[in-house]
């Protein structure tokens, strides 16, 4: 009897697993490195929250957040589900939140966090080490 229940459960979980091969993964568990810059999961979360707030309020300083496009040639894995749209927001080394008021321009730097409009983490990317000037590569351990 117990063996039969076990078999049924095992079969059900196998079917469930194969029907959902790619589960959205949440934040990285450790430090993410982009070139010589490092970001903790809480720094990534803070940048995503700032980006979602700006998206919702239409506060697009220096045009961020703006849409991020999945370019297959860049080989960047998005750890979120769905078909987008995806958004990008600058990461500032040291943990500050990116801001660029119209009277006080700040460069967005090299690194970006990618997320959905509801704030789900997708990836961390950088221009550092990309094969073209405007291209992105995934950051390490993202
Ligand atoms: P960025 O301004 O944050 O660098 C040209 O590369 C423009 O497209 C840039 O504004 C860049 O963002 C944006 N962009 C969006 N998705 C991109 C991608 N997958 N690769 C490179 N640039 C991308």
Automatic annotation (TrEMBL):
GO terms for molecular function: hydrolase activity; lyase activity; RNA binding; RNA endonuclease activity. SUPFAM superfamilies: Microbial ribonucleases (SSF53933). Pfam families: Ribonuclease (PF00545). Keywords: Disulfide bond, Endonuclease, Hydrolase, Lyase, Nuclease, Signal. Residues 1-19 form the signal peptide. This is Uncharacterized protein.
């Amino acid at each position: 009897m117990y063996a039969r229940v076990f078999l049924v459960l095992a079969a059900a979980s196998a079917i469930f697993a194969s029907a959902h091969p790619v589960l959205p993964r949440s934040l990285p568990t450790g430090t993410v490195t982009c070139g010589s810059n490092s970001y903790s999961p809480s720094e990534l979360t803070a940048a995503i929250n700032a980006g979602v707030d700006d998206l919702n309020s239409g506060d697009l300083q220096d045009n961020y957040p703006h849409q991020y496009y999945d370019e297959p040639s860049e080989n960047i894995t998005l750890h979120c589900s769905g078909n987008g749209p995806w958004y990008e927001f600058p990461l500032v080394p040291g943990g500050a939140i990116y801001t660029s008021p119209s009277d006080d321009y700040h460069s967005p730097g090299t690194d970006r966090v990618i997320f959905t409009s509801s704030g789900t983490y997708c990836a961390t990317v950088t221009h550092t080490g990309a094969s073209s000037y405007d291209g992105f590569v995934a950051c390490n351990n993202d």
